Amino acid sequence: MTTPLAHDRYCDEILAQAEKFRALPATGADPGARVPTCPDWTLEDLVRHVGRALRWTEHIVRTRATAEIPMDQVPGVEGPEERGDADALARWLEESASVVAGALRAAGPDAYAWSWAGRHDAGFWARRMCHELVVHGADAALAAGRAPEPVAPDVAADALEEWLEIVRFVQRALPDGPAKDLRAPGRTIHLHATDTDPALNAEWVIELPDEGITWRRGHEKATVALRGPLTSVLLVLYRRLPLDTPEVQVLGDRAVLEFWLEKASFG
User: Per the database record, which ranges form the MDMPI C-terminal domain (predicted)?
Assistant: First the structure.
């Protein structure tokens, strides 16, 4: 499988992002704190969700699964028995990241592994778990009362583009989901990172035709533009930061961007 970043780069970033979770107890983060961007969850719920995703992925990759594996068949997926122990949660998550990174490295990007997206290889999972940790790391920071840390530009750009791919996938695969309505012929969205090396070409133009969303890299006039630091642009698209966050600018028809944020969802 070809992915924008090297397979080992994803594995390294999985470990690096997990280390940020590992540091949460030292900041005095309360496991019972509500996650403002996932209001049905506490910080502990969030960590357990991420850890389960990592353990599930490790099992799929290690066993070269040919079909979806029920979560209750995955070893180590339960996490710490006692709730409220921030240190135990952080250690479990760190261990979960370590085992999935090990399984991904051992498999290599082209090894067969079932996925929900129809791309059945370990490379898909390396990329997906990397960005799962990036976005939920922002959730964890916000729950702990801190601003999300900037993400490495190559990782943030890839996370943004992967999200566009996911939105296009769910638009086609879930005809009854909200993304089915993400159609506005003639309307365009320009995403413009203002803090990256020009060589990264961290600008995107998204179109919303009836056939489903498309995008391309480049600087073009659009119906609406979202400008700001790349990590902030990414987190706005993921609805982790609001459109009126001070770090970003919205230029043009804001309603088009609000429409995108409403409909670009799994439901």
Answer: 154-258
